[in-house]
Known about the structure:
The chain is mainly α.
Amino acid sequence: MAHHDHGAHRTADDEYLVTPEGASYEHTDANVWVIAKFGFWLAITAVVVHLGIWGLWHTLVEQAKDTREQQYPLATSIDPKLPPEPRLQQYPQNEVYNFRKGEEDKLHSYGYVNKDAGVVHIPIEDAMRLTIERGLPTRTEDATHPAVTPGMMASDASSGRVMERRRQ
């Protein structure tokens, strides 16, 4: 190998301007023949895959023509089949409106809850007025349960059955 004088080159690329004796190409270059063979076999493989997919598609189309009944129950057909009862609401907004209107009518009218037992309902305004006039029912003081003394609170450990004195 020839001795190179590093001081003779002005740039790093100057040493590559002249091809050394005995060298015909750079050994790190790509091999054109290998690339051409790879491209050829890639094209052959692509053609084979496309033909295979076309054949599969053609087979499936013919099979679908031969099928008499629908294979997929959820697929749409000419005559829609209704699902079994109970079905979903068709118009939920209307049904909610009708339900609320019926409830509102019950709140503001008289009527029977149970006619045989004689249980009736009255308008809400009358019920509130009667509750204020008559008052709410109260518990009578039971002698077996003494009144709670100040500072006593239900115990956490006994789920409220035992009272204990706590600081407040």
